[in-house]
Amino acid sequence: MLGARVKPRLLAMLLCMTAVVGFVLTLYAPSPLLAADVQKVRQWRQGKNQQPRYSPTWDSLDKRPLPAWYDEAKFGIFMHWGVFSVPSFGSEWFWWDWKGAKNPDFIDFMKRNYRPGFSYADFAPMFTAEWYNPLQWAEILQASGAKYVVLTSKHHEGFTNWPSKYSWNWNSMDTGPHRDLVGELRDAIRNQTDLHFGLYYSLFEWFHPLYLKDKQNKWTTQEYSKEVGLAELYELVNTYHPEVVWSDGDWEAPYTYWNSTDFLAWLYNDSPVKDTVVTNDRWGSGMACHHGGYYTCADRYNPGVLQKHKWENCMTIDKKSWGFRREATLADYLDMDDLVKILAETVSCGGNLLMNIGPTHDGRIVPIFEERLRNMGQWLKVNGDAIYATKPWRAQNDTMTPDVWYTSKGDNVYAIVLDWPTTGQLTLGAPRSSSTTKVTMLGWPTPLKWAAGSGGGIQIQMPAAAPSQLPCQWAWVLQMQGVM
To answer: Has residue 15 got a pLDDT over 90?
Structure first.
């Protein structure tokens, strides 16, 4: 009777132990997902799935592919804003022209308008930005048709438009607006638009004592570059995550003084924007047009021919200044015919256009700049297919009608016609027609009539319509299919 009682208990214990062992085995058995993860770890350890790491050398850094978004964007807006926006006379180089170059026009301007002993630092409290509305700016920038914006975080005067801990009492939080101008626009851009947010940064400062000391030492010391320049760059990237780092002020000191390759290696390998950030080429004397992400080469660079390396045409609506000027006249501003022409030339030759405006000291985008931006947006609403995400065609400028520029996308070839033909018939020398050729005008409802030219090329009959009936006012885009 005792054995009969023990057996059921033993059986129960065995069953319990079996269940526990089964649970443990199930818990620790490699599931298909876990096995796949293990395989990924093994592949990573073997270096198969590692992202490329860039060494702090130009040979390595120049191999980094440019993130695709930048080439597809084609059009961005530059904004020069700082203490120089207070005198708003001459240009954003006001301080240098006054105290560095000692230009008589600037000296006379100060004598006529400001008290004796007035210093450049006295302008800072007048940089008030009381009308600065980042949401309004974001709306205007979005309406322009641009795909990215680059704001001046610090120009050569050294004033930072963010509360930098490396720029005591010479920044937008400690004096002037008492606001984080960079952070407010970043938030508005990222919350209200689909634009990419970028920052301009000047490596050097005209009159910073540490910079002048390093310069006197012929760049054998690096007090300014380490304690100010690089420190602020790392602070900017880690705080605001810009997708464009637009360097400037590069022409005096070599890249080794700036430790540019070390910074770029960190930016591409480990920064919070390592996968999407793009950079330009101004990282030390002699580097422009040779090293970096995309090339700017020089201000208003517009070569007019196809380039082998991705480039950008940074230019200004005000022909004479990047910052706002109170003395500017209407003739000083590029009109829409000018701007569309520059855009067509730039994109046709493989570049991006970065078009600059200068806000006022109180934070306004003045009407003439706003009008230009909105008109560009209206033109791009109709003709954006010929700009965004396009590639250069085999010909850039037409061989018979010079004011025609080409872009392409897939099987489509776009001819951007800057001047309406007086006869109503457009002759193009570059395209070769075929039996499947079709020609339309972007924004126009019906196909256009065309004929093969007697000596090659193609002749296109433009729509017989009043100017007010045409899809746009400044340039017209023909979309051609089935051309060679």
So the answer is: no
